[in-house]
Amino acid sequence: MTTFADHDDYITAAAEHLRPLLIEVRGWLAEALPDATEIISYNMPGFAIGDSAVVGYAAFSKQCGIYVSGETINACADAITAAGLEATKNGVKFSPKKPIPRDLVEAMAAAEVAGAA
Prior knowledge:
Blueprint: H1 7-13, H2 19-32, E1 37-41, E2 44-49, E3 52-59, E4 64-67, H3 70-75, H4 77-82, E5 86-87, E6 91-94, H5 102-116
Antiparallel strand pairs: 1-2, 2-3, 3-4, 4-6, 5-6
């Protein structure tokens, strides 16, 4: 299994057609979480505040995902549905055909920070 040193390493290794999505989501999360640091946890890029992971994102063969708590998925359920995206118990799937909106990424990041407080 490949291990990744940082977010750049992870994105470079992702499928070429998914890289633009990952770069975009990474940037949005960095802006939405200015006090967070980039981490690699469970071989997946994410952001942490202090010792707590706040959000992660990943690429697979045909889609990407953003990963947060179940509480955040529930809090953002209407926005996820409105965006036409599919949620799991702790994530939202998106792809080049169905990209994740910036406002949803920002709302999920804010909900994670609020939930951690």
